[in-house]
Write the structure tokens for this entry.
Amino acid sequence: MSNYLEDLAQSVIVGQEDRVKQLTQQAIDSGADPVEIINQGLIPGMNVVGARFKVGQMFVPEVLMSARAMNGGMELVKPLLLDEELPTAGKVVLGTVKGDLHDIGKNLVGMMLESAGFTVVNLGVDAGPDKFLQAIKEHKPGIIGLSALLTTTMLSMKDTIEVLKEEGLRDKVKVIIGGAPISQDFADEIGADGFAPDAASATDLCKKLLA
Amino acid sequence: MRANYTVNESVQFRILSEGQISEIVGAAIEILETTGAVFYSTEALEMLKQAGAHINGNRARIPSALTKQALQSAPNSVGLYNSRTGKKAMALAGYNSYYGTGSDTPYFVDPLRGERLRARYQDVANAAKVIDALPHVDFCMSLGLVQDVPRLTSDRYQFKAMVTNTGKPMVITAHDIQGFADIVAMSEEVAGGTTELRARPFLVLYAEPISPLQHPKDSVDKLLFAAEHGIPVVYTPAPMAGATAPCTLAGTLASGISESLGGLVIHQLKQAGAPFIMGGVFTIMDMRTTIFSYAAPEFNLLQAAQTDVAHYLGLPIFCTAGCSDSNVLDQQAAAEAMFSILVTGQSGANLIHDVGYLEYGSTGSLEMLVMSNELIGMAKRFVRGIRVNKETLATEVVDQVGPGGHFLGEQHTLDYMRSEFWTPSLMNRKRYDEWKDAGAKTLGDRAHEQVLNILAEHTPVPLTKQQLDRFDEIIRNADQRHGYQ
């Protein structure tokens, strides 16, 4: 039985979604414990991917393929689990702020978070305070992440934080910000909970904030 | 036997064959026609519809005939002038190369403290002053992003910092069309009027699409504003191969060039014949760190290829050089700056920006700028090539000196030594002991000293009090409109 787990982890590492799904289905059909499939197959595979990315052995698109493969397996196992058994590192709502259409950075953050086991709600671009507010009410995330490339739109980050205060939601959710003109100083200035210079460190930041 | 001929043997290169260029342009036109692009502007969509494009929501699919028509009507050359002397400073056409800074870096290396700080008004003023003094830097972009003034009107302050410190032509960024309008009003003050600015433009407006295939409202507004006012505009896509463009360099070229052409089509629809400069920063996303590389070999290939395509299309081209992914001015920065400076020079790119960028475009450095000025000098001499004619072959002089003599005392040497040889101002050619006695300074040390020297010694031609008062009035009005003060 342990052989399939190694095979499963390996298939996650090389990003073969079809193979992961096939192995997961076989395991389910032969009566394997769903928690074991996740904790000893899918997640260990993804952990190797994370470690290899960190030391520069794997590239971003490979991490993305591995995350897709892992999620492919996860989708098959999820219906078999009780709610409390569902593995998630936490939920993060992401969006590029109002007036800004630049979204590659924010999307990279989303991909890295998902590959680290977070559930990500992506609001897309041009997301004003109201859109974040609505998403917080609807999805109840632990963290919201705001992205901006333009110095004129980064002010919307402050507006969003102000709206959260007015609505009495500021202490219910952590706010993190990022983007080319953003710095720790600016995060401090507008009262955000954190800043990360890139997608990989954004993942570490989220883990830290929800620990 | 050839008689009466003059050839300047320039060492230019092309990296694409005629056939390859034709395939890339064909693919770009095909992308516009079949995939189309998104335009967040009702005016642009309306114009495109009238002209025969297929419109679906914000998406426009542009027939190849329309693109070809725009290529036909766009001018092949753009002239830019010195704002103080009124003399033509740059002819953006053919293989003429001019180098200048980039703009809007969030950080700047403070020349006195050596620290990387948020860029301020004074940094941009210093950059413009240094540019004004450097012989091989032909035009000015802000280098830094002014952040110690009101944020929504900082573009006006930034322009003031530039234009009060250099007469060299400049490429201008603005937050929006109102920002451009204010900067154009300030420029008219410098040029002496609307007609004068149009006749002798010293500024190029800057706008950019968002890859892949998106033309945001502000950028489209800027393009249309420039077309309407007859002010040259550069429309500069920044596709990242593997992320916002295909991973293959040919695919990135096709996709990025289709973005340039999409901008050109609406620009020429607004005003046929209005001056347009194509180009952009085409590069790769580093797959380990996700940075937008300003120095990868693939970046250099894409600069050269874009230039080949622009020459084929007969459009002036905006390229990128003198920049680095290194976080500080070090050996990496020098190697990377030289690479792109030489490549763009040899390709014959016209308006070559981003000289002085460190940290993949996040930090401006005056030391990087003056060091690159030196490198540009070297590259220009190299690109000029070797002139071969009767006079330069100098067989008569050889005959006069004869075996065993020397050439130091010959008139021929005096006549040619300054034009044939490039003379360094920063590169070390001192012998070891002399260099050691002078403080054993590195290139970085010497670049820093030159920066301090220029800042202390150089005085740009000042503007009049009346012009400065008018600037302040325009800026004050903008601040009031935005609710500052």
